[in-house]
Amino acid sequence: MQLDHFNIAAPMDVLEKVRQFYVDVLGFEDGVRPAFSRPGYWLYAEGKPCIHLIESMDHYPADRQVFLDHIAFRAEGLDAMRERLDRNGVVYRSSYIDEFAMTQLFFHDPAGTGLEINFPGES
Q1: Helices H, strands E: what count in the chain?
Q2: What stretches of the chain show up as alpha helix (H) in DSSP?
Q3: Predicted model pTM
Q4: Does CATH place domain 1-57 in 3.40.20.10?
Q5: What is the pLDDT of residues 90-113, one digit of tens each?
């Protein structure tokens, strides 16, 4: 089994900020999305739709207890990612795991979703 996508459901004003963050800061691409009854976006990486954004007036911050801590990605280009995060004013924390020779960056998207990006072999 492998992860297919994750979905963020929020009011459209939040989705617009989230879409811009994933496209401009993290490098995802807007892509084809079926004609669902509610507006939204599908964001692609390597030709696959892995982030679904859908308008919802039923989802608001702290409307229920959530246990999801973060979503993690594996990537290359640590220095370029740090530069993009800095340029866009994204506050992040960095960690290095000696046993895996891997740097991790931790931060949040505009909807508050915790994100981790792992850079194996980069420090």
Answers
A1: 2, 8
A2: 12-20, 78-87
A3: 0.89
A4: no
A5: 999 999 999 999 999 999 999 989
